[in-house]
């Protein structure tokens, strides 16, 4: 197998086309993610189903655009997975952003609502009797 050959351009020719921008559904440029997340490797212990809710209504002036978007989305509790999907950012980047916001007390984390293993028997009986009366 032969390696691909480099194409040379004459001085009067136009430069090669610029690389294509990330299309919808593709991940953004990795350098951009590094800039968004920063070099700090500290992360809060967040799970995909951890609920995040904003503690403040308006983002502070020092907030990045991504943090401001997170605050707007977190007016009602949302899981970290939902936030990651809405912002089209990887989970790891959202976790770093949320860690910064948790330390600044801009957002609050909540444990996900756990379902009971078995439904309450009295509730099921009440529903059953109500359906029988119909």
UniProtKB/TrEMBL annotation:
Region (Disordered): 1-29
InterPro entries: DUF742
Taxonomy, superkingdom: Bacteria
Family annotation (Pfam families): DUF742 (PF05331)
PANTHER family: DUF742 DOMAIN-CONTAINING PROTEIN
Name of the protein described by the UniProt record: DUF742 domain-containing protein
Originating organism: Streptomyces cathayae
């Amino acid at each position: 197998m032969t390696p691909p050959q480099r194409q040379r351009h004459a001085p009067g020719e136009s430069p090669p086309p610029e690389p294509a921008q990330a299309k919808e559904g593709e991940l953004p440029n990795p350098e951009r993610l590094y800039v968004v997340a920063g070099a700090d490797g500290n992360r809060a212990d967040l799970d995909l189903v951890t609920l995040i809710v904003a503690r403040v209504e308006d983002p502070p002036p020092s907030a990045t655009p991504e943090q401001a978007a997170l605050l707007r989305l977190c007016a009602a509790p949302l899981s970290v997975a939902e936030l990651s999907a809405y912002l089209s950012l990887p989970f790891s980047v959202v976790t770093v952003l949320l860690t910064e916001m948790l330390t600044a007390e801009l957002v609050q984390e909540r444990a996900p609502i756990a379902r009971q293993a078995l439904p309450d028997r009295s509730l099921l009986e009440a529903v059953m009797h109500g359906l029988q009366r119909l």
